[in-house]
Target: Diaminopimelate epimerase
Amino acid sequence: MTYTKYSASGNDFVIFHSFTKKDYSKEAIKLCNRTEGIGADGLIVLVPHKDYDFEWLFYNSDGSHAAMCGNGTRACAHYAYSNGLAPSNMKFLTGAGTIESTVEKDIVQTQLTKPILIKDEFIQDGFTWYLVDTGVPHLVTIVEDLEKYDNSLASKMRYEYNANVNFAKIEDKKIYVRTYERGVEGETLACGTGMAACFLRAHNLRLVDDIANVYPKSKEELTLTKKDEILYFKGAVKKIFTTSIN
Ligand SMILES: N[C@H](CCC[C@H](N)C(=O)O)C(=O)O
Model:
């Protein structure tokens, strides 16, 4: 089987396509393992679909299934276009619904799913939180200093709310984010739906404009846009290598 490794702003994925729609959780654990596998935050499998360019199956590195992955959609769209599986402007089916992505060289833009507010502002453990679903659930707290990121608190909140956990700093209308990712069970270098959740929170508080640059732990620049209540997520992706494993 041929596998391709992508990095989307530091959030990395193993991607392949197959005619077989089945549970790939075990493959995800094996392939995402950073010592004995290829190593990645997640596995993405493209399978045929009669109504869309393809359907995707997404797994976190612990083998758990997730409905959506913002960075994963950008990597997967680039993979699909590069392999002739979809046109540059494509529509594919995810666990969170239909996703539309557009590929222009190494820049990919994804139209995210409609955000759903789960729990508005609440205070817990000394931080003010906001819980929103941007394809998957995300807790967001805005802090003055990202050194306030607390991995053990993030892990506690992740299990209490079954959500990813984001600490965001806003400076000159730019957003800087650190994310503890569910299913990776640790901080990743970027989390697309997490950046979208932070953007939404900052936008609601009028701390950013309708278009904002967002910088995850990898420091790569991404752009989030809110237009007619729809969120668009744009940034570069990198194909790292392709390999065959028997
Ligand atoms: N870990 C997430 C899925 C991946 C989200 C993230 N990698 C992104 O780019 O949106 C979850 O289980 O909810």
Q: What stands out?
A: The CA atoms of residues 79 and 135 lie 21 Å apart. The longest helix spans residues 70-82. The chain is about 20% helix and 45% strand. Residues 11, 60, 66, 69-72, 136, 164, 181-184, 191-193 surround 2,6-diaminopimelic acid (CB under 6 Å).
